[in-house]
Design a protein that fits this description.
The chain is an alpha/beta fold. The chain contains 4 helices and 13 strands.
Length: about 210
């Protein structure tokens, strides 16, 4: 379908990452006489485009295999927040038209800046505590952003945005490439790999027209 937009970033050994870089080895190779190529990857649960489940910050919270499909599949609103310098506030969300949406994606300057680099930026855009509180208060069940963390740079010691969202059961999508996405409502299909009992997992994510 030509109107589908893939938000998933490729996984490779030189990619933008938090923690250890992903690595791989070839288990079998056609060049060595095997009938096929077979590789084995070592990646973190938070590698590439991925979902954080509530259990990421809440002991006993829902794990990634327990996330309801209704949270990750359905109408999503892409908000144009490219003007935000560093921290998305509640006022920014209201001005961007978040009211009434159950699922939101934040298109920020990250998509054409911080997300395109292979090393961590010091100046990415994240969701601030007031923005997180607004999402929780307005019944949002899913929030995604175009960088490897939803947290704004000033808050990566205590992680208040993650704590607020995870405590309320809001599913978080990180590292979504929104550079080519038009703000407004779309149909989203986000399917995290169901790692049993884990706090996060890679999550291929596609946007479709609402009439698809």
């Amino acid at each position: 379908m030509t109107d589908a937009i893939d938000l998933t970033i490729p996984i490779h050994t030189e990619m933008l990452h938090w923690g250890r870089r992903p690595t791989f080895e070839m288990v079998e190779e056609i060049a060595d006489g095997f009938p096929s190529d077979v590789s084995r990857w070592l990646i973190g649960a938070h590698t590439g485009t991925h979902v954080d489940a509530p259990a990421h910050f809440v002991p006993g919270g829902a794990t990634v295999d327990e996330i309801p499909l209704a949270s990750v599949v359905g109408r999503v609103r892409v908000l144009d927040l490219r003007h935000v310098v560093e921290e998305i506030t509640a006022d920014d969300l209201v001005a961007a038209g978040a009211d009434g949406a159950e699922r939101v994606l934040f298109r920020t300057r990250n998509s054409t800046d911080a997300l395109t680099r292979n090393v961590r930026s010091d100046t990415w855009v994240g969701l601030g505590p007031s923005g997180a509180a607004w999402l929780v208060d307005h019944g949002v069940r899913f929030a995604g952003i175009d960088y490897m963390t939803m947290e704004a740079p000033a808050h990566t010691e205590t992680w208040p945005t993650h704590v607020a969202l995870c405590t309320a059961g809001v599913v978080i999508l990180e590292n979504a490439d929104l550079a080519g996405v038009t703000p407004g409502d779309h149909l989203m299909v986000c399917r995290p790999v169901p790692f049993a009992g884990r706090e996060a997992a890679p999550a291929p994510t596609v946007l479709l027209p609402l009439d698809a």
